[in-house]
Amino acid sequence: MRQRIAKLKEARRALAVASAVLFVAVIALPVWKITIDAPQYPFTLVVEVYSYPRLGGDWQEVHGLNRYVGFYYPDPVLIEPHFDVHHTSIRTPEWVFGPVALAAVALATLYAGLKPEGSIAQTLGRVFTAVVVFGAAAVAWVQYRLYQAGHTLDPDAQLRGVDSFTPPVIGPYEVANLDGFSQPATGGYVALSAFALLFFAFLLRDTDASVAELPRLAIAAPGNTVEKLKGFRRRLSKGEG
């Protein structure tokens, strides 16, 4: 055990373990939010979305605006708040597995950071690749669900004739007289930080440099990158000759 703790002085291991801790922390935080400006409200409304069926912020006010144009929260919202699900709401049963997915990513990252010396580089490479693929797939799936929600508007809504729309995962959108903006919430930024730490662990996977050496490595990184690019170009030139 002491030997494993001592090995955490290696930057690649410490970064991986820190990344795992942050991935777990994401479960307790809102990961995504939407801000909405409406003429009838003098302030910006905010709805926060967690990695599991839970909403926070001004969800009730936004729920009323959504009903006006026939756009509804997805089903289920199991934790809070509790409200009657509209029959046109899209079903998102996979939402309940968000914490499970984050815990799995955290365990895989922790496992990579604690691997024996001979296989840590390979394991970090595999875990990083898997997290990239999983993250991209998750974002794509959320975007698909947003497309579904914006294209299943209630035809019996109070405001008729509202065109279908697709809220982006990140960015602005408009529907009727409402201006919305989607962006990461606190948990989203924590998840991005966790990914950044894992990325740096991946870059350092072939070296046992210590945490104390990180500033030196950071300073030397641009020069090393330039040299690698020059070497790559030289190899290409020889191949063409």
Describe this protein with a few key phrases:
alpha+beta; five-stranded antiparallel β-sheet; elongated; single chain; 241 residues
Outline:
The chain is of the alpha+beta class and 241 residues long. 51% of the residues lie in helices and 11% in strands.
Description of the molecule:
The chain is built from seven helices and five strands, in the order H-H-E-E-E-H-H-H-E-E-H-H. The chain is an alpha+beta fold and 241 residues long. The chain has two domains: 2-209, no CATH class; 213-241. It has a five-stranded antiparallel beta sheet. Helix 2 packs antiparallel against helix 4 and helix 5 (120-150) runs antiparallel to helix 6 (186-203). The radius of gyration is 23 Å and the shape is elongated.
What do the pLDDT scores average to?
Answer: 83
Number of strands: 5
Strand neighbour order, sheet with most strands: 3-2-1-5-4
Residue stretches low in confidence (pLDDT < 50, at least 5 long) are none
The N- to C-terminal Cα distance equals 54 Å
Report on the biggest sheet.
5 strands, antiparallel
**Overall morphology:** elongated
Radius of gyration: 23 Å
Order of helices and strands: HHEEEHHHEEHH
Give me the secondary-structure category: alpha+beta
What is the number of independent domains?
Answer: 2
Assess the beta-strand content as a share of residues. 5-15%
Helix content: 40-55%
Number of helices: 7
